[in-house]
Amino acid sequence: MVVYYHAHGLLIKRHTELGLTNEFWAREHGLTKFGALGVDIFFIISGFIIFHSAWDKKITARSFLFLRVRRIYPLYWVASILFIAITFLPGTSYSLSGLDIFASLLLIPKYFNGDVKPVLEVGWSLYYEMFFYLLFSALIWQARERILVQMTGLFSLLIIAGNFVSIDFGIWKVITNERLLEFIAGGWAAYFYRNGSIRWNGYLRWCAIIVAVSGTIAFVLFDEWREDYSALITRAPIAIAVFSCFLFDEKLKNYVGGRVTSFLGDASYSIYLFHMFPFIILSGMWKRGLGVPPFDGIATWAVLICVGAAAGIGAHLLIERPMMSLLRGKQFYRTVPAG
Q1: What pLDDT digit, counting tens, does each position of 2-18 carry?
Q2: Which of 291, 250, 301 is closest to 22 using CA atoms?
Q3: Cα(224)–Cα(117) distance, rounded to whole angstroms?
Q4: Percent of the chain, pLDDT > 90?
Q5: Which of 15, 54, 152, 203 has the fewest CB atoms within 10 Å, measured from its CB?
Q6: Which domain, by its residues, includes 117?
């Protein structure tokens, strides 16, 4: 979904050079912005996985953070350093300061080019991931139900505070963002999934489908709804409904099983981090009138999606897998035996 969204963004940026005269290629639309909901689904999945995987395990804060840092930072550093290297090539329009690079590599929220994001812009979502991990690790000594309740309350208070106290500071913008509650939604999904208190049936299936479909229609068709209202109203219900269907509904689970989807799931982090690199190269070429595709906008869009996904899959096979295999062989952490 994110690759789909960013591929259209590249066509918006270069529609003049590509000779795309239809208004669809000149600005963002609900049909294309819908791809950004992939991040909302990702946050819910992340909240679910963290709570679900740690629910009945005793693990130290140090061990938990080590595992999370090992999963997030090394591949992110490879992608970031590659991007930073590209910015030093002749003809690029990027201007990076030492502070920009330092803060980005450590995932310290900071304004860059007018927004809170690292120099590798797709990494903005990792700010929220790391804040969620840090808070979870600080509370990890407690029962998971208590952590879930406490984080629900704390995130809610921070979001309310952010609406009343405006501080133009990167970290404040992150810790008061309403999307943090999507991690909590994933945590509550883990709670209900583990205790079996939700008796999924045809009625709940249709309720979830109706929420997902009606929410999608509103998001795609009505600009004011999509742009003027809270993401907790316009985006989160769609993501929660879709996630719930494939978590609780045994029939729907069959549609996402299999080796291909499992592989794409394994490669999803690499796809997220590396899909922009061919887009950056193509953008520079098209700006100079080089390699302009001979086919129409829809075909170009489809090719971009395939090329972006292929770049991520290649990074997964050539970089992520060998790197994680090596790092998993290093036992720098300690878990506490259950019981």
Answers
A1: 999 999 999 999 999 99
A2: 301
A3: 25
A4: 81
A5: 203
A6: 2-328
Cβ-based neighbour number of residue 145 at 10 Å: 13
Distance CA 37, CA 2 (A): 8
Q: Is 333 part of a structural domain of the chain?
A: no
Q: Does 51 fall in a domain? A: yes
Q: How many whole angstroms separate alpha carbon 47 and alpha carbon 30? A: 26
Q: Which residues of the chain have pLDDT under 70?
A: 330-339
Q: Please tell me the total count of domains within the chain.
A: 1
Q: How many CB atoms lie within 10 A of CB 275?
A: 24
Determine the pLDDT at residue 330. 59
Q: Which secondary structure element, helix H or strand E, spans residue 64, and what is its range?
A: helix 61-87
Q: Is 335 within the bounds of a domain?
A: no
Distance CA 194, CA 189 (A): 8
What is the residue type of 23? E
CB half-sphere exposure, 96, CA atoms < 13 A: 23
Q: pTM for the full model?
A: 0.91
To 5 degrees, how large is the angle CA 249–CA 251–CA 255? 105
In this predicted structure, what is the pLDDT of residue 3? 97
SS3 (DSSP) at 293: coil
DSSP H helical ranges for 196-329: 202-221, 223-228, 231-234, 236-248, 250-253, 259-274, 276-287, 297-315, 321-328
Phi-psi region of 19 (alpha: psi -120 to 50; beta: other; left: phi over 0): left
Neighbour-count burial for 178-190, b at 16+ CB within 10 Å, e otherwise: bbbbbbbbbbbbb
Rounded Cα distance, 217 and 211, in Å: 10
The bridge status of strand 111-112 relative to strand 115-116 is: antiparallel
338, part of any domain: no
C-alpha separations of 117 from 106, 123, 171, 291 in Å: 12, 7, 11, 30
Task: Give residue-wise pLDDT tens across range 39-50.
Answer: 999 999 999 999
